[in-house]
């Protein structure tokens, strides 16, 4: 066997390929150069861009809420709505799962929810922010904080508080959880109350904690306070009187409104049933309805003064014109029109027609009027169009075009059937009798200057009608409307309700609208009792006493001097008179 020496190995003896080694070295050097270039680009050339991108992933714009303005009564001393501190309780699901069952149960008890609901809300661990409850009271939030539950955090916020509760509910309204107005004044003047939110640009860590500010803070502009025309004392008195009447007569609902006849300001507006705006669970159903402005009804006899005033204003009749109303039954256009009096009212002048509330007399007056003139006057009084008060829910009612009126419809409209109105519209229209025939504009905000008005009747006609309405609220009329020490004027109305397209024989709405004191009218008060089921249903019986109570307390609160002897109150027990 031939042996080879070390230097004679065929492998070692072959010449190495140096170009391959050089290629590897060059490739390694190029790789290091590329890495160095990339590092240079990232660390120096693109540093600002990458920094911005990184910050953007954790950068947040925080909204700095503006403090919502307060709502005050006309005196400025009674707060009707204000914002109070509250907390938003939130959680990081991943951390919240470490909480013990006892902690979760106690948290659920404080938040008034079920433990399973809290578990369900936090089951997605990919989320890092979940609200557990908003607008938690400060005392509850403090108790929750003391539990030291993993992942549970709190944010400062505010919630709306309504000190007057259900007494002011339909006026003030309420806000939603985002502090936006939903009903009432809160909705009507939301922009003025809410102000302008500010902003703060910050960087947050994974736990939602602010690390630093990255932009100048834009401060919020707080909302304006609103001073309403409502008088808190008059509102409470009206609420108390209406609630007592609703209970006494076992009525389905009731409403009342008090107007300042001089300024057109709404001093009180009450609806029953009501609700507590502080209780979110109570904000449902029929209790939310502001019946003064949203409910329409056929007004009945409270429309008669407007028709009579029109006939006097046009010279179609005088105060001495006589009308033979007969025995209380009158055949007209194929229909029988009747008066309440079983014996009939006989011969009446226009004042007697108003005082005795004669449907037959009003029918005879309507025969002297044209449908067009009645429609134009009713329209001028605001019927058939929504009142301009900047309050949500205002309805226009129903007043059909005069071209479609038949003679029988002109007659029924003359005494309050065939058209529909809201209680606000009726009270507004009665300001023509409380003033010099002009109808003043309405306001829910306290006025500083003089109000505007529209002339509807002449001053002479307004004074004549005040005298007739005073008699209608006197001993031979709706005597329960009288007020000790003050001369009052007004008209009751009783209307059948329409059920399934037909007039019901068991369901009524009793109303009374009037003004006081007659010598120098200061207020107009309108009251409506819906479906009274005990103690009668005529407006003069169920609504007139409420009018009396409201007028008495209101005039005394306003400091209006009596214009009648203090012993002038007629005893209502055992006396006759119209209750219609």
Automatic annotation (TrEMBL):
Catalyzes cross-linking of the peptidoglycan cell wall at the division septum. It is an enzyme of class 3 (hydrolase). Its EC number is 3.4.16.4. Residues 255-551 form the Penicillin-binding protein transpeptidase domain. It comes from the Bacteria. Belongs to the transpeptidase family. FtsI subfamily. This is Peptidoglycan D,D-transpeptidase FtsI. Pathway: Cell wall biogenesis; peptidoglycan biosynthesis. The active site is at residue 301. It is found in: Membrane. The keyword Transport does not apply. Its main location: membrane. It catalyses: Preferential cleavage: (Ac)2-L-Lys-D-Ala-|-D-Ala. Also transpeptidation of peptidyl-alanyl moieties that are N-acyl substituents of D-alanine. SUPFAM superfamilies: beta-lactamase/transpeptidase-like, Penicillin binding protein dimerisation domain. Residues 64-213 form the Penicillin-binding protein dimerisation domain. The gene is ftsI.
